[in-house]
Write a structure and sequence with these properties.
By secondary structure, this protein is α/β, with parallel strands linked by helices. The protein has helices at 4-11, 50-68, 112-125, 142-146, 187-199, 219-227, 244-256, 287-295, 307-314, 319-322, 327-348, and strands spanning 29-34, 38-43, 72-77, 97-104, 130-134, 155-156, 159-160, 163-165, 168-171, 206-212, 232-237, 261-266, 271-272, 279-280, 299-302. It has an 8-stranded mixed β-sheet, with helices on both faces. Strand 1 (29-34) and strand 2 (38-43) form a beta hairpin. The protein is globular and about 60 Å long. The structure holds adenosine-5'-triphosphate and magnesium ion.
C-alpha cells in the first residue's frame, strides 16, 4: 500500500505552471488520503488562475494514477478564502503594531503555546516591545504559562487593557472566563471575539505581536490569520510527528492568507539529561531540518525536550525568564534571532506566492 508521504514525494516532480518550483514547495497540497482502492488529494491553490488550476489538477491526477495504479483518484480543489496578496504585508494594519507573527502547527500538542510564549519573551529580552495574543479560544493556555490565571484583563473606556507579565502584554480568553468552565463557541462568536482581541485591545506600540494559534489548519485558523496581515508564520513540529504532510498543511494555510512562511522549528527535538548532561535523541532528530530543506523553507532551530521547560511553563515562569542563562533558554533566544532575521527577509524578498 502506498503511503501519503510517497505520493507527496511523487507530486514534487510536478512543476507549478509557469514556475520551475514544484507544486509541493508552493504549499498548495493540503491533504492526501489513501483508501483501499482510492486516493484523494486536496489542493488549496489560493488565488491561482483557472487555467493553472486545471493544469495542476490534470497533472496530479495522472501522476497519482501512474504512481499508485489506482484508478479512483479524486482531486478536491479547496476554494480560496481570500485573494492571495501579491506582496507580503510589511506592516500590520493594527495601529502601532509592526509585525504580527503566527505560531502554528498541523497537529495539536506539539508545543505551539510553549514556543509562542518563550519566543515572545525572548524577543522582549532582545529589546523589543512584544505582545502575545492567545488565539486558541478552545484551549487558552497563555494565562497559565504567563502565571496570570485568575486575573482578569480590565477595560478602560472602550478599550480592553492587556495583562502585563514578564515585560510583555498579553490577552487571552482565559482571562475572561472561569477556569474549568467549558467553552462552546460557534464560528461567528469566535470571529467577533478575535476581532476584538486584534482591534480593541490597547496594545500600544509593539514591534512584534505573537499569535498562539489553535491546533490544526482549519477555517478558524484561516479566519484568525485573516484578521491581521501576518509578517509570517512559524510552524512548530516535533521529531515523532515529522510527517511532511503536517507541515505542508501549515504551509498551505499560511499561503492561503498570503502570509510568508518564516520557517519550521523542531520542538522536543532531543533530550538532555538534567543529571549528567547527556544528550539523547529519543525520537531521532533532524527530521525538521530535512523537511524544511525539502520544502525549501527556513529551518529556525530546535528546542530540546526538557522537563524544566514543562515545569517552568506550568509554574507561570517560562524558562526564558526563570533560567535565562541556561541552555534551554538559549535555544529560544536563538529561535527569536532567526525569526527576526526571517521577518526582515520576508519584507524584502519576492516570495513565491501563487499567481
Ligand atoms: N520542549 C519541551 N520540553 C518539555 N515539555 C514540553 C516542551 N514543549 C512543550 N512541552 C509540554 O508539552 C505539552 C504540550 O505543549 P503545548 O501546550 O505548548 O502544546 P500546543 O501545541 O500548544 O498544544 P495544543 O495543540 O493543545 O494547543 C505541555 O505540557 C508542555 O509543557
Ligand atoms: Mg496551545
Amino acid at each position: 500500500m502506498v503511503t501519503p508521504q510517497e505520493i507527496l514525494n511523487e507530486l514534487k516532480t510536478i512543476a507549478y505552471p509557469g514556475y520551475t518550483r514544484d507544486i509541493v514547495s508552493f504549499g498548495i497540497i493540503r491533504d492526501i488520503e489513501v483508501g483501499t482502492d482510492s486516493v484523494k488529494v486536496s489542493i488549496a491553490p489560493g488565488g491561482a488562475r483557472d487555467e493553472a488550476i486545471a493544469e495542476i489538477r490534470a497533472a496530479v491526477e495522472t501522476a497519482v494514477r501512474d504512481f499508485t495504479g489506482v484508478d479512483n483518484v479524486e482531486i478536491a480543489i479547496e476554494a480560496s478564502q481570500t485573494p492571495v496578496h501579491r506582496e507580503p504585508p510589511r506592516r500590520a494594519e493594527i495601529p502601532g503594531v509592526k509585525n504580527v507573527i503566527a505560531v502554528a502547527s498541523g497537529k495539536g500538542g506539539v508545543g505551539k503555546s510553549t514556543v509562542a510564549v518563550n519566543l515572545a519573551l525572548a524577543l522582549h529580552k532582545q529589546g523589543h516591545a512584544v505582545g502575545l495574543l492567545d488565539a486558541d479560544v478552545y484551549g487558552p493556555s497563555v494565562p497559565l504559562l504567563l502565571g496570570v490565571s485568575g486575573e482578569g484583563a480590565g477595560t478602560d473606556g472602550d478599550r480592553i487593557q492587556p495583562v502585563h507579565s514578564h515585560g510583555i502584554a498579553a490577552i487571552s480568553l482565559g482571562m475572561f472566563i472561569d477556569r474549568g468552565q467549558p467553552v462552546i463557541w460557534r464560528g461567528p462568536m469566535i470571529n467577533k471575539l478575535l476581532t476584538q482581541f486584534f482591534r480593541e485591545v490597547a496594545w500600544g506600540e509593539l514591534d512584534y505581536l505573537v499569535l498562539d494559534l489553535p491546533p490544526g489548519t482549519g477555517d478558524a485558523q484561516l479566519t484568525i490569520a485573516q484578521q491581521a496581515p501576518l509578517a509570517g508564520g512559524v510552524i512548530v513540529t516535533t521529531p515523532q510527528d515529522v510527517a511532511l504532510l503536517d507541515v505542508q498543511r501549515g504551509i498551505a494555510m499560511l499561503h492561503q492568507v498570503g502570509a510568508p512562511v518564516l520557517g519550521v522549528v523542531e520542538n522536543m527535538s532531543f533530550h538532555i539529561c538534567p543529571d549528567c548532561g547527556h544528550r539523547s535523541e529519543i525520537f531521532g532528530h533532524g527530521g525538521g531540518r530535512k523537511m524544511a530543506s525539502e520544502s525549501d523553507i527556513a529551518f529556525l532551530g530546535e528546542i530540546p525536550l526538557a522537563r524544566r521547560i514543562r515545569e517552568t511553563s506550568d509554574a507561570g515562569q517560562p524558562i526564558v525568564i526563570s533560567e535565562p542563562d541556561g541552555e534551554h533558554a538559549k535555544a529560544f533566544d536563538a529561535l527569536a534571532t532567526r525569526v527576526r532575521q526571517e521577518v526582515e527577509k520576508a519584507g524584502r524578498l519576492d516570495l513565491p506566492l501563487v499567481n
